[in-house]
Design brief:
Belongs to the class-II aminoacyl-tRNA synthetase family. ProS type 1 subfamily. Its EC number is 6.1.1.15. The chain is α+β, with helices and mostly antiparallel strands. It is 27% helix and 29% strand.
Length: 572
């Protein structure tokens, strides 16, 4: 490819609405352009990298005996209603009606579609196991699209679905996909960790997320420094923190004017945060849920959802919803409250081990002191569960070792679905005895476009992107110092042809711009190798090869360039 033929408009300034490095650099380097909030068009450089990621995914999926198909993006509402997810999926689903007023959605995922497809074709155990996958766009109506490709409304995803006759078969399929994902992200050059995770709206009994470690990641993960334990903080297993036992003091009310946060209350009453409890109120499936944790802890929304067996993601309760159940924001505790069909109380296990703590008095500008949960809560009317997030004071639940925290970008996830969809959609097979059984399913997703963003978040510097060789748009760029010099261009063309013949994915920057402009663009775009052809090249019969990752520059004879470049690329 010649640079004069390449559509790659670069920007010198950082776009004002770009939130994270990957978004900034992909816009500046001419990899994509914003169409609308959460929607992007890929330009040639970006699409080349996307196609290289897809090629790696296809190779490893095919190696794992998965077979590629393609299903419609537009899905009929009927199959989602049959599975029970049409309403449960929530506001992220993009729904439309056709001219005949039939309901459809733009596929956020394809469990219903694949199950409906397979159930009409497979009827015997002899046809199983089978694993089918596709690579296509998915659509989710994000409330706040942000961070470029990391949280967009349209994104490229590889989704695979396995069908087995029993749990042992599912375990084998799951491990096969887990291993394939490990190879995929390794080949893409990512630094990543598989972590235990929550299955969310997909459902199922077991799941792992593959997290690319990056400060820009939205997910918080914890991992043990001594064993293999690693988990998304949403499902991390916090221990019960017990306070030293104290004599129970008399419950009383104190005035706390204008102290609507637990930090304000603690400061006003000169209390450490661990001697307070705080309340967070959610709306889940139309029910108001009061979640209580210690003042020095944070509520884990996923744990709260599981505790009340909710089917949709928690949302913060509105002032109107609080008023409906008689709660006053900023001054809430379970003291004197009882559960109803519309109102649930979930208390963290560590709260139940506190003595003489402070919490809301359920009226404005007032708090209780000397709350003793086992005495003062209506214990028979509350749910006690581990609903706090893990802290730095927690230890590994597996071995008791030290836990470290990190930020991660979810680039893939594998699920054991079991019979959640096959039972709902009557996807059965006849076993050896001629009896019908529901197929045992797994599903496996990779965010292809998100993987691209994650690589940039991990590999960049102040000058631009530093691509892992496997997913770079081009592996090398040839930069003649002066494109108007016929001798330099002739030599550059000779090197270009030699590299192409050697199988190197190479770009010749034949633009007539100044050398400094070309060098800046090469660093910004992030070609792994830059080959400079200068006057010195003609005089000494050698070129300079610069390695983008290390900045190291080496010289090489012209007739050895192809061999040297191929050798250098092996280590990138």
């Amino acid at each position: 490819m010649l640079a004069t033929k390449l559509y790659a408009p670069t920007l010198r300034e950082v776009p004002s609405d770009a939130d994270v490095v990957s978004q900034q650099l992909m816009l500046r380097a001419g990899f994509m352009r914003k169409t609308a909030n959460g929607l992007y068009s890929f330009l040639p450089l970006g699409w080349r990298s996307i196609k290289k990621i897809e090629a790696i995914v296809r190779e490893e999926m095919d190696r794992a005996s998965a077979q590629e198909i393609m299903m419609p993006i537009l899905q009929p509402a009927e199959i989602w209603k049959e599975s029970g997810r049409w309403n449960a999926y929530g506001a992220e689903m993009m729904r439309i009606n056709d001219r005949h007023d039939n309901e459809f959605c733009l596929g956020p995922t394809h469990e219903e579609m694949i199950t409906t497809l397979v159930k009409n074709e497979i009827n015997s155990y002899r046809q199983l196991p089978v694993n089918l996958y596709q690579i296509q766009s998915k659509f989710r109506d994000e409330r706040r699209p942000r961070y470029g490709l990391m949280r967009s409304r349209e994104f490229i995803m590889k989704d695979a679905y396995s069908f087995d006759v029993d749990e042992a078969g599912l375990d084998e399929s799951y491990k096969s996909m887990y291993d394939a994902y490990t190879r995929i992200f390794t080949r893409c050059g990512l630094t990543f960790r598989p972590v235990e995770a929550d299955s969310g709206a997909i459902g199922g009994s077991g799941t792992h997320e593959f997290m690319a470690i990056a400060e820009a990641g939205e997910a918080d993960i914890v991992y043990c420094t001594k064993c293999d334990y690693a988990a998304n903080i949403e499902i991390g297993k916090p221990g019960i923190m017990k306070q030293d036992e104290e004599a129970l003091q008399e419950l009383s009310v104190v005035d706390t004017p204008n102290a609507s946060t637990i930090e304000d209350v603690a400061e006003m009453l000169n209390l450490p945060l661990h001697k307070t409890i705080k309340a967070v109120v959610f709306s889940i499936d139309g029910k108001i849920v009061l979640a209580i944790v210690r003042g020095d802890h944070e509520v884990n929304e996923v744990a709260v959802q599981h505790a009340v067996l909710g089917s949709v993601e928690p949302e913060m309760a509105t002032p109107e919803e609080l008023e409906k159940v008689g709660l006053t924001a900023g001054f809430i505790s379970p003291v004197g409250l009882k559960q109803t069909e519309e109102f649930a109380i979930v208390v963290d296990e560590s709260v139940m081990e506190t003595y003489n703590v402070c919490g809301g008095a359920n009226k404005k500008d007032a708090h209780y002191i000397n709350i003793n949960p086992k005495r003062d809560f209506n214990v028979e009317d509350i749910i006690v569960a581990p609903i706090r997030l893990i802290t730095d004071d927690d230890v590994c639940p597996t071995c008791g070792g030290t836990l470290e925290h990190a930020k991660g970008i979810e680039v893939g996830q594998v699920f054991k679905l079991g019979t959640k969809y096959s039972e709902a959609l009557q996807a059965t097979f006849l076993d050896q005895n001629g009896r019908p059984n529901p197929m045992i399913m797994g599903c496996y997703g990779i965010g292809v476009s998100r993987t691209l963003a994650a690589a940039i978040e991990q590999y960049h510097d102040e000058n631009g992107i530093i691509w892992p060789r496997a997913i770079a748009p081009f592996e090398a760029v040839i930069v003649p110092i002066n494109a108007k010099d016929e001798a330099l261009m002739s030599t550059s063309q000779t090197i270009y042809t030699a590299l192409q013949d050697a199988g190197v994915d190479v770009l010749l920057d034949d633009r007539k711009d100044r050398a400094g402009v070309k060098f800046k663009d090469a660093d910004l775009i992030g070609y792994p190798l830059r080959i400079t052809v200068s006057k010195n090249t003609l005089e000494n019969n050698e070129v300079e090869i610069q390695i983008r990752k290390s900045g190291e520059a080496i010289t090489c004879a012209i007739d050895s360039v192809a061999t040297k470049v191929t050798e250098l690329l092996q280590d990138l």
